[in-house]
Amino acid sequence: RHLEVWGQNISCFFYSICGKLNTTLTESTASEREGRFMEQVKIGAISSFLKTTNIFREVPLPVLEEAAEHCRISRHKRGTILYRKGDPASLMYFLQQGYVMEQVYYRESVDVIIKVKCPGDYFGETAVMTDMEYLNTALVTEDSSLVVMPKGVFLQLAWSNHTICQVVIRE
Fold it and tell me: pLDDT > 70: what percent of the chain?
């Protein structure tokens, strides 16, 4: 009789473990589905935004969706320096909201403002396309949201879509 009770306890124990395991697997699968869904939403948001910019207006959306898989959205507070003159150029920036100022330091104490970037603008292209260091400093002047694209992804887009280079030359 003791073995019978023990056997029931063991089967209850295994049932309990299997039930928890099944629930965990179901939750994990649901969590993974939610993660994949959120990733697709992010990719859709990034590619849709990129499509609205001058530089990517003529690029097919499926091509931008593929590129968006390698991009991220980056948020920065006012006063953040995104890069400094002389830093290796590894990223392209696309401003979703806020303002960013490109500036250079002249001599030791004078800042010269080159451009103020507004939503929809891009920057970092010259250094990225010429495989040089950034030629200026980019300073966030108002809390901003940016799409950040790795250099290799941008160059691949530019090489396969000549309109990108035409826009950069015109602007």
Answer: 80
End-to-end alpha carbon distance in the chain: 88
Give me 122's structure tokens: 């891009």
Which residue bears the tokens 């099944």? 22
Paired sense of beta strands 72-76 and 137-150, if any = antiparallel
> Are residues 144 and 100 in contact, defined by beta-carbon separation less than 8 angstroms?
yes
Distances (CA, A) of 81 to 78, 87, 105, 115, 136: 9, 12, 14, 15, 11
Q: What is the pLDDT of residues 137-149, one digit of tens each?
A: 999 999 999 999 9
Concatenated DSSP letters of 4-59: HHHHHHHHHHHHHHHHHHHHHHHHHHHHHHHHHHHHHHHHHHHHHHHHHSGGGTTS
The per-residue b/e assignment along 81-96, b for 16 or more CB within 10 angstroms, e otherwise, is ebbeeeeebebbbbbb
Residue 141 carries which side chain, given as an amino acid letter? Answer: T
What amino acid occupies position 19?
G
Query: Please, is 59 exposed, middle or buried when counting C-beta atoms within 10 Å of its C-beta (0-12, 13-18, 19+)?
Result: buried
Question: Can you give the pTM of this predicted structure?
Answer: 0.77
